[in-house]
Amino acid sequence: MDATERQAALDRLNVLVGEWVVEAEFDGLEVPPGRSVFEWSLDGQFLVQRAQAPNPAPDAMTIIAVDPETGGYTQHYYDSRGVVRLYAMTFDDGVWQLLREKPDFSPLHFRQRYVGHLSADGDTIRGAWETAADETAPYEQDFVLTYRRRR
Predict the structure, then answer these.
(1) Least C-beta-crowded within 10 Å: which of 1, 80, 111, 151?
(2) 49, 35 in Cβ contact below 8 A?
(3) Which long-range CB contacts under 8 A does 29-33 form with residues at least 24 apart?
């Protein structure tokens, strides 16, 4: 991956920059909205996300980097429970995907993915986190997670 391709990959993430209201839908629970802010760091080489979430979700911070081997992204995830995870990430054609299917900083007790779809106006991302018990089990919805840009 050359510098031009790397910059193009970073530029695709500009749509995420800003402040978002985050709405989580857990079965049987009323959860107030949370807040998420995406901003560039270290001369625009990394996209940092800080999220404040009501219970049962933890507060979190992520750092998104371009993967020079694949042209995709790696999301480094940290949360207020002390959980650290590494996700393979793509953001193409308005579809944001996060995928964790192998052990990283913690054992892999289940596979996990998020698939979100960006609205035509760029102000809403609606998606869901899904989990699978093992590599042969199908994914099942864990909870819906929607981002709405705060103006």
Answers:
(1) 151
(2) no
(3) 29/56, 31/55, 31/56, 31/57
> What confidence tens digit (pLDDT) does each residue in 85-114 have?
999 999 999 999 999 998 787 777 899 999
**Which residues lie below 8 Å from residue 52, measured CB to CB, with a gap of 6+?**
34, 35, 36, 59
Return the pLDDT at 127: 97
Dihedral pair phi/psi, residue 72, rounded to 5°: -85, -150
Buried b (16+ CB within 10 A) or exposed e, 116-148: bebeeeeebbebbbbbbeeeeeeeeebbebbbe
Question: Would you state the structure tokens that stand for residue 46, as one six-digit string?
Answer: 């990394």
CB of 21 closer than 8 Å to CB of 148: yes
Q: What are the residue ranges spanned by the domains of the chain? A: 3-149
In CATH terms, 3-149 corresponds, of 2.40.128.20, 3.40.1570.10, 3.90.79.10, 2.160.20.10, to 2.40.128.20
